[in-house]
Design a protein that fits this description.
Elements: E1 7-11, H1 17-22, H2 24-34, E2 39-42, E3 55-58, E4 61-63, E5 69-71, H3 77-89
Parallel strand pairs: 1-2
Antiparallel strand pairs: 1-3, 4-5
Length: 100
């Protein structure tokens, strides 16, 4: 049983964490519209890896109809990079009435 990853956690760069937290809902909405069919949550924890870029963490497990836990198929590197690039280009201090 295999399934595509549909949910991602976004971890902001350390120096942008306060600005990202303030724009959390706008960023999640922006990503959901930019990548239809996927779900995004901005993580409240410290960055992983490079402190200057957004980290995109796929939620890889799911519970099957039989109640067992399974792993999703690994998402492509280009999708993860596209999501990270979209996060990087998002205007954090934009007006609340705009999605980006």
């Amino acid at each position: 049983m295999s399934k595509e990853v549909l949910s991602f956690i976004i971890v902001p760069p350390f120096d942008q964490r306060a600005a990202v937290a303030a724009a959390k809902e706008r960023l999640e909405n922006y990503l959901s519209h930019r990548f239809p069919g996927y779900d995004f949550k901005v993580g409240p924890f410290a960055p992983v890896g490079d402190d200057e870029v957004f980290s995109v963490l796929p939620i890889m497990n799911f519970v099957g109809d039989d109640g067992e836990c399974y792993m999703c198929e690994q998402p492509s590197r280009w999708l993860l990079q596209d999501i990270a690039n979209a996060c990087q280009s998002f205007v954090l201090n934009g007006r609340r009435s705009f999605a980006a």
